[in-house]
Prior knowledge:
Layout: E1 5-10, H1 14-25, E2 30-36, H2 40-49, E3 57-58, H3 61-67, E4 72-75, H4 82-91, E5 95-98, H5 106-119, E6 123-125, H6 133-143, E7 150-158, E8 164-165, H7 171-174, H8 183-193, E9 199-207, E10 221-222, E11 237-244, E12 249-255, E13 264-271, E14 275-277, E15 282-287, E16 290-294, H9 304-316, H10 330-345, E17 349-350
Parallel strand pairs: 1-2, 1-4, 2-3, 4-5, 5-6, 7-12, 8-10
Antiparallel strand pairs: 7-13, 9-11, 9-17, 11-12, 13-14, 14-15, 15-16
Bound molecules: nicotinamide-adenine-dinucleotide.
Amino acid sequence: xxxxxxxxxxxxxxxxxxxxxxxxxxxxxxxxxxxxxxxxxxxxxxxxxxxxxxxxxxxxxxxxxxxxxxxxxxxxxxxxxxxxxxxxxxxxxxxxxxxxxxxxxxxxxxxxxxxxxxxxxxxxxxxxxxxxxxxxxxxxxxxxxxxxxxxxxxxxxxxxxxxxxxxxxxxxxxxxxxxxxxxxxxxxxxxxxxxxxxxxxxxxxxxxxxxxxxxxxxxxxxxxxxxxxxxxxxxxxxxxxxxxxxxxxxxxxxxxxxxxxxxxxxxxxxxxxxxxxxxxxxxxxxxxxxxxxxxxxxxxxxxxxxxxxxxxxxxxxxxxxxxxxxxxxxxxxxxxxxxxxxxxxxxxxxxxxxxxx
Length: 357
Ligand SMILES: NC(=O)c1ccc[n+]([C@@H]2O[C@H](COP(=O)([O-])OP(=O)(O)OC[C@H]3O[C@@H](n4cnc5c(N)ncnc54)[C@H](O)[C@@H]3O)[C@@H](O)[C@H]2O)c1
């Protein structure tokens, strides 16, 4: 029998417990050997649930890296902590699965990718939406030329009221508001479905019209940690017009709070052969000079959160291609930075192509 990968998770709050620990636990070629969190209660609870002895639980990730001879680690902490925890792991020869957004900004993102390259280790980013069946179906259609040239897309994720409480609303910890939180999911997914064209410019605005609103009767996302003071110094809505080097354009919007419909992640692709809607999947085509719409039946159940972890370990073992490599989040970080810059200055911001040697 081949040796199992020795895995650890840093940050056992929401996503650590909902995706990464169950992902490793259900993976036949992996064992969870250590867990790290600065919160003693969550650490003890997760250790008990996943059968990790207290001797292998840590408040300090560096001590865990020193002692545990890890093969893989998931970084599931608030965004400001991703850079150090990822780069230190890579420098120790540990493959990393880092949650989205991969870093606070483009500069950190590039350095993390460079560290992975220098170490010869894998760096994955937690874009679980790429694993959804509707998404992989549309990507297959794109690759097989069903849409032709995709020259226009609409994308976003609008919540009527849906602030994630805790550290997410504190810019020094999160890097920003809905744009860098749920917004990167929509942005990455749509960009991936468009065939990942090079972004060249962004014109954008951000708003904060609600902040810490107070309405009743709605479910919200509660981060497990941070921000007891209730600081809210990020945007609550961002909107942008993005141009790409191949001439394509994207209209994009994302909110934690606005007065309108909840959309979930939405993606509309418009090609010169056909168009598509992501959820539910619908293709807008033409057959024999008639316009025809069709809706593929997608009945398989896919657990995208679990799949992203399984794909990572399989890629480490050389069994699968990594679907969400860290270097593909550089252009997403560039678009996010450009949206904030354009919103602040009121001007269109150009995006340079970054080539890593
Ligand atoms: N892919 C997705 O669908 C998805 C969903 C939710 C969150 N996320 C991402 O996952 C990450 C974590 O978000 P969350 O909602 O789980 O947050 P959370 O607050 O629920 O959990 C974070 C955990 O990290 C611990 N922590 C904080 N600083 C630490 C440090 N320096 N060392 C060790 N532990 C530390 C906290 O005690 C907490 O238990 C963020 O990057 C977030 O954007 C991704």
